[in-house]
Every structure is written in C-alpha cells, then in structure tokens.
Amino acid sequence: MFKGSITALVTPFDADGAIDEDAVVRLVEWQIEEGTRALVPCGTTGEAPALSAEEQRRLIALTVKTARARVPVIAGCGTNATAATIERVRAAEEVGADAALIVAPYYNKPTQAGLFAHFKAVHDACGLPIVIYNIPGRTSVDIAVETLARLAELPRIVAVKDATGRLDRVARQRLACGPDFIQLSGEDTTAVGFNAMGGQGCISVTANVAPRLVAEMQEACLAGDYDRARALQDRLMPLHEALFAETSPAPVKYALHLMGWMRPDPRLPLVVPGEQTRERIREALRRVLDRQAAA
After folding, report:
1. CA distance 243 to 262
2. How far does CA 165 lie from the centroid of its chain?
3. DSSP H helical segments within the chain, as ranges?
4. Residue among 106, 107, 109, 161 flagged as catalytic
5. Are 57 and 92 in contact (CB under 8 A)?
6. Virtual CA dihedral for 200, 96, 210, 162, nearest 10 degrees?
7. Residue extents of the structural domains in the chain
8. Does residue 249 have a cis bond before it (omega within 30 degrees)?
9. In the chain, N or C terminus with fewer CB closer than 10 Å?
10. Cβ atoms 164, 191 nearer than 8 A
11. Residues 6 or more apart in contact with residue 104 via CB below 8 angstroms
C-alpha cells in the first residue's frame, strides 16, 4: 500500500463549480492503467480545504468505487481541528478507504505536545492505518523527529509523507522510528534522493500528468537501479518545476486541461495560472511528454 508512485489526485470541477465525477472516474482509470500503485484523493493537491465534508466523503467513495480494490486508496482527511479530522477519517473508513493521510494542523501552530496529542487522538478514535503528512511550508509547523518517533510507536501510525525537502530527515527519521516505519516523499524534485536515503516512494503531484514516467522512476528506485531512476528524473525535472511555478494545484490542473482531461479551474482563492506560467507548462509538456499541447 505504501510504496512506489502514489498520486495525489487533483479534484476536477465542472463549469458550475461542482465536482466533475465523470472526470474523476476517467482520471482514476488512467492512473491505474499507467502503473500508479495507490491513490490519494482529498489531499493538498485535491484542494481539500475548499471541499465540504460531504463533497470529501463523496469524492473518496467515488475513488474507492472506481479503483475496485486494484490499488489502495489513501484518503486525505486532515483538518486543523482534531474533532473534525476524526469525523472525516471515520467517514473515509465507512466508504471503504484503505488508509488515511493526516496533515499536521495548519494555522493553529500547535506545539510538539499538541501535535502528538492531535495525532494520538485521531489514532485512538479510528481504525484506519494513518500516514502522517508533514509539510511545514503549508502548515507553519514542523513535526519534530522526536515527536514522529513517539507517534510511530502507535500501532496504526505506519508512515510519514515528508514534504520538508530535507533529505537528512530520512536518515534521522529511520534511526528514530525504526526500519519498518515507512517514509514517503512529498516532494517530486527530490524524490530519487529521498529514496536513496531510505524512502519507499512518493506521493506525487507530477504523477497526475505523467503517471507512467513517474511510476517507472519509482520502480527503478525500488529495484535499486538508480542510473535509470536519475535518467527518468532528469527527463521529468522541467515538468516538476513548471507544476510548482505557482501555487499547486493550479498549474497541474492547467496541464491536465491542456491534455484534455478536465477544466483548468481550481476553487477560489486559487486561480488559473498567469500566461507566463501557462506557457511554461505548455513547453514542459512538449519537452517531457512529446505532446503538442493545445493553446
């Protein structure tokens, strides 16, 4: 469940701003066909903060139904309120999710004691395996290695999605949490280095657009073929960079729009990227995927 290329799915919206369920089904099918090992709906890339609890439940249920147990579904359930997070994890469990991705509470800026208490409360209230999501650039809090080690002692806290961008954390967390605790990269540009340091995969944004290439890169890492992994990463790098030229997921949604998968619109307060970024995305698609993307 927790290795290789795992796609942090975008959430397509229709012209009225509702979830485009047909587009969701098409994207899930394509991801599975292209070799993605697991799917994450309702994460940061899925614009979870802009989804209602009912929308989130429906989107997770639709992903589970479409996946049909061919790949696991790791449902994004984190909020900045512990009680609300517990409600969303329970809802994900009810609709058949295989695990929950729980981001560190954002905006509140809890202490390390508060972070531990938050994740323990969610763990104790729910039955799903939990992947902790540490992304200080979005949350303004960093889960310390020592705090993660304490959390790793809880039986259903089994993995971390590390988006700190610090490769030294992989070694430090492995030593603190033990070799069985799973570490997944949350940053596409450093994913190969992350795996070389002891990671097992990546919850990827770029995999939305280039699922086969990202899957092949991750499989090369798992096989220990780092020459091939580096070559694939070099090919993907222009796309990695273009997809983060503005706040994600606006660029990745625009790329998928150019590829004919969905409308480009994120929900406010995010907006469609500016023209300079749009051209950068078009060029990256041409270079990386050999596509003549639509204007």
Report:
1. 16
2. 14
3. 21-33, 53-67, 82-94, 112-125, 136-139, 145-152, 168-177, 191-196, 211-222, 226-242, 250-258, 275-289
4. 161
5. yes
6. -40
7. 4-226
8. yes
9. C
10. no
11. 78, 110, 115, 118, 132, 133, 134, 135, 136, 139, 141, 142, 143
Residue found by looking up tokens 């979870």 in the block:
48
CA-nearest of 255, 188, 201 to 10 is 255
CA angle 10, 79, 164 (to 5 degrees): 70
Could you state, in chain order, the average pLDDT of each consecutive group of 10 residues for the chain (295 residues)?
A: 96 97 98 98 97 98 98 97 98 98 96 98 97 96 98 98 96 96 98 97 98 98 98 97 98 98 97 98 94 48
Name the active-site residue from 3, 106, 133, 253: 133
Per the listing, tokens 């969610």 go with: 122
- Indicate if the alpha-carbon torsion angle 227, 233, 235, 238 is positive or negative: negative
Whether the full predicted model's pTM is greater than 0.90, yes or no, is yes
Q: How far apart are the first and last CA of the chain?
A: 38
Q: What is the CATH number of domain 4-226?
A: 3.20.20.70
**Spatial CB neighbours of 122, under 8 Å, sequence gap ≥ 6:** 82, 85, 86, 89, 100, 102, 130
**Do the Cβ atoms of 20 and 263 come closer than 8 Å?**
yes
DSSP string, 68-120: TTSS-BEEE---SSHHHHHHHHHHHHHTT-SEEEEEPPPSS---HHHHHHHHH
What's the rounded Cα separation, in Å, for the pair 17 and 265? 8
Instruction: Report d(CA 83, CA 121) in Å as an integer.
Output: 9
Do residues 111 and 86 make contact, with C-beta atoms less than 8 angstroms apart? no
